[in-house]
Amino acid sequence: MSDGASRAIAILGGTGPAGMGLALRWARAGETVLIGSRDQQRAKDAAEKIREKIGSRASVSGVENSAACAASDILVLTVPFEGQATLLKQLKPAIRTGSILIDATVALAAGVGGRASRTLGVWQGSAAQQAAELVPKGVSVASAFHNLSAELLNGDEALDCDVIVCSDDASAAQVAFALAAKIPGVRAIDGGKLENSRTLEQITALLIGLNIRHKGHAGIRITGLPPAAYRTAVKP
Amino acid sequence: MSDGASRAIAILGGTGPAGMGLALRWARAGETVLIGSRDQQRAKDAAEKIREKIGSRASVSGVENSAACAASDILVLTVPFEGQATLLKQLKPAIRTGSILIDATVALAAGVGGRASRTLGVWQGSAAQQAAELVPKGVSVASAFHNLSAELLNGDEALDCDVIVCSDDASAAQVAFALAAKIPGVRAIDGGKLENSRTLEQITALLIGLNIRHKGHAGIRITGLPPAAYRTAVKP
Q: Would you call A214 and B226 a contact, using CB atoms and an 8 Å cutoff?
């Protein structure tokens, strides 16, 4: 992201609450955002909503998911788990070699009629590892953004939450760090290998359970690491 | 714990770093602590170390694990996972009906020659649920204290970490809340049912991974909940 707004961020399945919140925050930070949806009109409407919020300077547009893949090599996936595999298989021909996919999927049991405070077992270990299995060769996957409250993302306040990034690819991790640090209040933390996404995804279900129990918008902060472990946006 | 120091806290397997740290903090808070070990002499030596740190006013003694169970109805279990089932089976006749067992066990893969940043699958779902299966009838289990750095517990500073408590029994949860809130800096949070311990235990492995990667003593804070969700010690 050192090239500023010249590299568009495509948010696949971006019309849901998490995708909209991320789009809002990144557009506000001056990034060019493509909201992707199965339905082009829905994507355009979502982009229009964000422009209404932050004004005409916002570089946000809405396109069909495969057009978003064709137009960008930074892809953020924010779909319910039950749609993840189908969408990735469908988009496989559209995803460009060298793209980076940042997966925020959580296998909540709610997706199959269970509770949002419980998760499903995923054969590969986590939704992010499933994504890594389904992307074309030459595409790197990072796991991030599971534990940001969609409701708070869609607001105006700085967040009080850290984003742990897991990836087996250093450049994919770097892109995720940079995107996380563009959200006010967020610190990005290197969480190591993609397999560690298992725990990140479980934490989402725990936070949803806390929200139901205590009526809040829970997030997590990691304490006790040296300052260099926390990556925050450098103020210009 | 409303009866102050009159109800002893038995820490089973309490001579390890986590058990010693909890013993130190609770003894400092004026609680009566029984450090349990397989080896009575080792338990006595551990208690002596704590008295050396905090002085003769400390009410800490060391006894064999089954003697600790016979002498107390608040049992805190801090053993490596690979010893948990064997110890609970062995202690079954010694654990008093009506006792509360607070389990802090994490099934780290390190226990079977793997990595401390990975966990084992436990048939029951979590180590705490395994404990619940193994205790005698009439004994309630809560899950807590997994995510406190043993190194920081053994120090003098306030901790910067929350303790999420999971239990199917309201009174077991209350005892765990009260014990957590006696540790300076710690806030206790009701995490719901015992099954949610699955995630608490995974978080420990994540924090160990962060410690290895970033050379720190990681903990977690939960943000975004209303003030009533955070239970802290009432200052006298």
A: yes
